[in-house]
Amino acid sequence: MSRVQDSGLFLVVFLATAFSFFAPTKAYSEKSQVTLSAIANEQTHAAAVLILREAYRGIGHTITFELLPARRALSEANSGATDGDVARISGTEKKFPNLIPVPTPIIMFQAGAFTKTVTKNIAHWSDLKGLTVGIIRGIRYSKIGTEGMDRVVAKDMTHLFRLLDRNRVQVAITVVRAGEIEAAENFPNSGIHLLGKPFYTAPLYHFVHRKNAQLVPLLDAEIKKMSENGLLQELYNRSFDGK
To answer: What domains can you pick out in the chain, each with its CATH number?
Structure first.
């Protein structure tokens, strides 16, 4: 073989090898299976699960969920052990920098204080000062709102209300609809009730791990469509109403 032919063959082999090395094996957008972190025993995340199952179906994906304690759910999503977390407040990405929020919120929630004995009005976070406050570990809005207060941290919703029922805390902070369901189902004769009106309202956003960044615009478009046609609210209500 001539030197020219030999050089030509080398170039073809080199280019073929380089292309196979640098070309992606499969775009993530083509992946059909996604696993998301979700908080176990928490009704708001149960609603988010229902919503996201439909949103991912709309972009051609199926999803499974890892039900975990709230703080661990975030850690698993941030580490890449799962593909994201179902729903968190804005700013979560500052503490967990590997997570990217989908811009359109999936849930707007209202939080309030549940109690057995307290009668004072709670209209702001500052009104909780002087009380022993119960929150759930890993739920960031309640942790931020009660910073510096006398608080007790529960592992999940049922544990939180058990602390309240046993007078270990004077008030328990949680999403109102979730708290009402917990009180009705697991503490029906306890006297636990919402104290006044909800005093905190915020949107929840779906977060994906940065390795899945290409899913963000697809999911955002789908969630916007679900919001505009009323499906988002319908699924949220269905989750809480049990229909």
So the answer is: 32-107+203-241 (3.40.190.10), 109-201 (3.40.190.10)
